[in-house]
Specification:
- By secondary structure, this protein is of the alpha/beta class.
- It contains four helices and five strands.
- The chain has a domain of about 90 residues.
- It has a five-stranded parallel beta sheet with strand order 4-3-2-1-5.
């Protein structure tokens, strides 16, 4: 009896957002977070693939809130790591954040919050095929 190749059951996501723009240059990060929340609010599933300097946003060393704002010392403002951690925890199984290991290593961002998955850039094609729609936000 010959063995027949069997397609593995793969988890499918409604949307994959590939974030390639530097996080503090424009509104790309905010756009990704807002689009993700809008999709999650409608019951959809979203995965974000963070490339480049976006891999620095989820380092363990970042606190969940930003340092005190001297113009508003009573305010509390979440850091990107805090927002991402909260979104993953709140929407467990429906929202995921992936960090490109090559980009992370190039920038010395070695330790990430536990909710983040690290994946080799060689897995990007498989991640794209596991999404109904893929949207690139940022540059090349």
């Amino acid at each position: 009896m010959a063995l027949m190749p069997v397609a593995a059951d793969r988890r499918m996501w409604d949307l994959l957002l590939v974030l390639t723009a530097p996080p503090h240059v424009d509104d790309s990060l905010t756009t990704v977070l807002r689009l993700s929340r809008a999709m999650l609010d409608t019951g959809r599933t979203v995965r974000v693939w963070a490339c480049g300097y976006n891999t620095m946003l989820t380092q363990e060393t970042l606190a969940p809130v930003k340092p005190v704002n001297l113009l508003d010392t009573t305010g509390s403002y979440p850091s990107a790591a805090g927002v991402i951690r909260d979104m993953i925890d709140t929407h467990r199984g429906r929202f995921g954040w992936i960090v490109c290991t090559a980009c992370s290593a190039e920038r010395g961002a070695g330790r990430h919050i536990e909710q983040v998955r690290l994946r080799s850039d060689a897995r990007l094609a498989a991640t794209i095929s596991a999404a109904s729609r893929t949207l690139y936000i940022g540059g090349a």
